[in-house]
Amino acid sequence: MASLSLLVDNVVVNTFDLNRTETRIGRRAGNDIRIDEISVSGQHAIVEAVANAYLEGTTDYYITDNNSTNGTYVNGIRIDGRQRLNSNDMVRIGWNEFRFIDEEENTLEKTAYILD
Amino acid sequence: MGISIAGQSHAGAVRGCNQDVVAWSAADDGNSALALVADGMGGYQGGEVASRIAADTLLETLAAQGGPSGDIPGQLKAGFVLANARIAERRGAEPQLEKMGTTLVVVWLVGRQAHIAHVGDSRCYLLRAGSIRCLTRDDTVVRKMLDDGSITEADVPNVPFRNMLTRAVGAMDPVELSYCCQTLEYGDRLLLCSDGLTNSVAEADWGALVQAGCNESVVEALIGAALDNRATDNVSVVLMTLDE
């Protein structure tokens, strides 16, 4: 299971599970992660959970900015396309800082790397 | 015409054991030669066993049995199939080896035709008049995701399954391999290597190293550069030159 944790002064104040195929982030009602804050656009960004076509049982997470006013940043770099997320990536939505965590990715790092 | 070959395999700057194997064999008449790199994997001792079985099987079936015949791709495939079966058999017989497998890249140079077959992420490069071109395409999850646009080159170092192979000899039934044929010009070189080289010395930095002179000097220079960069994996290089 992957999640986005909202940080304030490096302290987790809320965690959102990314348990849908598409998780919508924005200021308006109806978003899966609603951030009622002025730097966030109505429909700001979307996170997709996609089964990896080449690695059975693995899910990849991709974030796409939805032409937001203040942008979506991954590790300090403004994204301009669909961007794959890695565990511990810092995601900024407007002025709101999140940490992306993918527990399964951490496990994968430690497993053997041959495919049966 | 003549074919000269040199190669070396090193455990690297960190690992205590070497699971890579390099091997080559040139025909007495100077018209054909076989060279290979295998990078074994799969836990304690397994990798060493798998890569050794693969190398021995290819040398035995291709070089030792009278050399190339009409159907060279077919002969190469038969060698890979036998290596795959032998490794699978050992996996089945010895539980501690159940995860073993190996990459395998083989060049069979016959006249000026280089027949190249591979499984996994060990590579074959063509060095021609100062240019460097990779002739093989890695069998990795990352390569497939790059090809379908899921990720960019900038993402590769961060992807957790960057070392994950989609194909390995000994771990597939039936074995699937990639094959291509390249016509060489006199003076061309073919460089076979394990990912220990490509991960520690970027292709962009090979320029001066591959101009180092004779085959032995180039191999020495590339492995030296990998060790200078504290290569964390085993590093193997084989270099074959088609001389006039």
Short description:
The complex is a heterodimer of chains A (116) and B (244). By secondary structure, chain A is mainly beta.
Largest sheet of chain A: 6 strands, antiparallel
User: How can the largest sheet of chain B be summarized?
Assistant: 6 strands, antiparallel
N-to-C series of helices and strands of chain A:
EEEEEEEEEEEH
Average pLDDT number of chain A: 90
- Structural class label of chain B: alpha+beta
Label the overall shape of chain B. Answer: globular
Description:
- The complex is a heterodimer of chains A (116) and B (244).
- Chain A is mainly beta and 116 residues long.
- Helices cover 7% and strands 46% of the residues of chain A.
- Chain A has one helix and eleven strands.
- In chain A, the strands form two sheets. Chain A has a six-stranded antiparallel β-sheet with strand order 2-1-11-10-7-8.
- Chain B has 244 residues and is an alpha+beta fold.
- In chain B, the strands form two sheets. In chain B, strands 2, 3, 4, 5, 6 and 9 form a six-stranded antiparallel β-sheet that branches.
- In chain B, helix 1 (46-63) packs antiparallel against helix 2 (72-93).
- The longest helix of chain B is centred in the middle third of the chain and has 22 residues, at 72-93.
- Chain A binds chain B through residues 52-55, 58, 60, 62, 83-84, 86-87, 105-106, 108-109, 112-116, and chain B through 41-43, 99-101, 141, 144-145, 148, 150-151, 155, 158-161, 163-168, 171.
What are the key terms here?
heterodimer, A: 116 residues, mainly beta, 5-stranded mixed β-sheet, B: alpha+beta, 5-stranded antiparallel β-sheet, 5 helices, 27% helix, 30% strand
Summarize the topology.
The complex is a heterodimer of chains A (116) and B (244).
Chain A: E1 2-8, E2 11-17, E3 22-26, E4 33-34, E5 45-51, E6 59-65, E7 72-74, E8 77-78, E9 83-84, E10 90-93, E11 96-102, H1 103-110
Parallel strand pairs in A: 3-4
Antiparallel strand pairs in A: 1-2, 1-11, 3-5, 5-6, 6-9, 7-8, 7-10, 10-11
Chain B: E1 2-10, E2 20-26, E3 32-41, H1 46-63, H2 72-93, E4 101-102, E5 104-110, E6 113-119, E7 123-128, E8 131-134, H3 141-147, E9 178-183, E10 189-193, H4 195-198, H5 215-228, E11 235-243
Antiparallel strand pairs in B: 1-11, 2-3, 3-4, 3-5, 5-6, 6-9, 7-8, 7-10, 10-11
